[in-house]
């Protein structure tokens, strides 16, 4: 265990709103051990930005970690040559060029189909009725698991995310995660004989990856490619509707939906944490880490670091977000970043505001989570 100063938290309060505790950590103990999480947290942006790249110390290889045990050893749980080799094989499915030329029309068609069904209703829950199916349809295409329903895709992603954050060892959470991974394996098996061109399944098979790696990486893509875009779509729309003066900036051409998404991802990081295992003894910021220590890189805290963002608790789409590391900063920078930006900023946000006239909030939007964070419901209405 590291010799970091100890910070106690209330798990329920931290899940409901982690930002007050994270601000307290950044100010008083930016590298701190939290007994309730069984990990040492790095909370300042610059520490995370530097240490994430030092994979010889803060390793992604976690053979006994929850993600590896539940989902298999995917490329996110590998470093160095092993990680780079699998990332290169997957790249043709998610490259910026592939996204713009191949996936963007698919995303737009799917989002319009969802809106065709929603528009006559006059109201919905943005999370379940719009953001979820839009995100799921995009992910079905990218993974190649086109026979999954949106509900199956969303449920499998949530079950895996819950499993990977199940540090309390809840047996029901583990059971649901195993059921989700079995469902994904079933759908992989259905597509093995004819994987859709350019899909993650197709390019990995063409690249000669072992089937165990293909399965693990597909699960990784789902766990990182469904809930996070879903929550960012619904969350960014909520943020703009809650700050009408900022939405007006977009309408006047003084800002863009890309600005809104970048600011939302800084402000409410959909991926709030990434775990690491200490591979060798080292000292950072006066804290000595021992081999085997569990470390959490708190991206949700980095986005509100006062050293880089003035009035960091305020949503402001005019802000310079260049210092934000919402998609990571090191060799594990999110491989799906281009697809996420395209789906959210170029398709889901503008289409929602264009097609749902006089879109407005119709109730409270509760948020939850610290490792993964987003709204659990965003009720809205619009004019018919």
UniProtKB/TrEMBL annotation:
It comes from the Bacteria. Belongs to the cytochrome P450 family. This is Cytochrome P450. Gene3D superfamilies: Cytochrome P450. Keywords: Heme, Iron, Metal-binding, Monooxygenase, Oxidoreductase. PROSITE patterns: CYTOCHROME_P450. The keyword Oxidoreductase applies. It comes from Sedimentitalea xiamensis.
